[in-house]
Specification:
Oligomer: single chain
Number of strands: 4
Order of helices and strands: HHHHHEEHHEEHH
Low-confidence stretches: none
Number of domains: 1
CATH class: Mainly Alpha
Largest sheet: 2 strands, antiparallel
CATH topology: Rhomboid-like fold
Helix content: 55-70%
Length: about 240
């Protein structure tokens, strides 16, 4: 029997949808620019992007690790929550990732320009990848920060994945996880909080060359925790 035949319907369809979109993005090279999500004030932002960005990925490693997490943690969570609620959980945590990411970006822009709508003080040439401004207080570094917010789309299901991790850690805290980079099993209640703290550190530290949206990961984790509490989901409540 094929290994994927035992997967519950939402997990199976999420895997299929993500891999189909990934192949499509390899064929149509500008797909990530159209379906990845931009900061809402960016001229490149479109209303569908907060949903479609979850199904786009930046490379083989990116999609592999995200879909591996769906494959590993999704089935048991879909079994506990039920298919409909599991899909809602996945999409809401993916949207929650944007709430925190956009909030942090808005604060950055306000600190630099005095407004969360930097398009009112700078202009962009997306074809040439250039940004222009007459704002006297903006340095070259400031303009680079603004350009990265406005001109770089965010892609990937990582926000929703962090929601799944938090749900799994909350519902199955004593489950031992075998991780590629740690040679001994680690309980979910130990690994997942440490992972989240690491994401917070990396997000605040903002190391040069780090293009990962760490606050999106934290947003997915936060909304995952809120939903688990709000919906009253418990391990002993099984829905088929």
């Amino acid at each position: 029997m094929p290994p994927f035949s035992q997967l519950p319907p939402v997990v199976k369809n999420l895997l299929i949808a993500n891999f189909v979109c990934f192949v499509g993005s390899m064929i149509f090279m500008k797909a990530n620019l159209l379906f990845g999500v931009y900061y809402p004030d960016s001229p490149q932002f479109h209303i569908w992007q907060p949903i479609t960005y979850m199904f786009m990925h930046g490379g083989v490693g990116h999609i592999f690790f995200n879909m591996f997490a769906v494959f590993m943690f999704g089935p048991v969570l879909e079994q506990v929550m039920g298919s409909k609620r599991f899909l809602q959980f996945y999409l809401i945590t993916g949207l929650g990732a944007l709430v925190l990411q956009f909030g942090v970006q808005a604060i950055e822009l306000y600190n630099l320009t005095g407004t969360v709508r930097a398009s009112s003080v700078v202009s962009f040439n997306f074809e040439e990848g250039m940004i222009y401004s007459n704002h006297p207080g903006l340095s070259r570094s400031d303009l680079q920060t603004i350009a990265s917010i406005y001109m770089t789309p965010m892609v990937g299901a990582s926000g929703a994945i962090f929601g799944l991790l938090v749900a799994f850690g909350f519902l199955f805290p004593n489950t031992e996880l075998m991780l590629l980079f740690i040679p001994v099993p680690v309980k979910a209640k130990v690994f997942i909080p440490i992972y989240i703290v690491l994401e917070l550190f990396l997000g605040v530290a903002k190391f040069s060359g780090d293009s990962v949206a760490h606050f999106a990961h934290l947003g997915g984790a936060l909304f995952g925790f809120i939903l688990i509490k709000l919906w009253g989901i418990r391990r002993d409540v099984w829905r088929y």
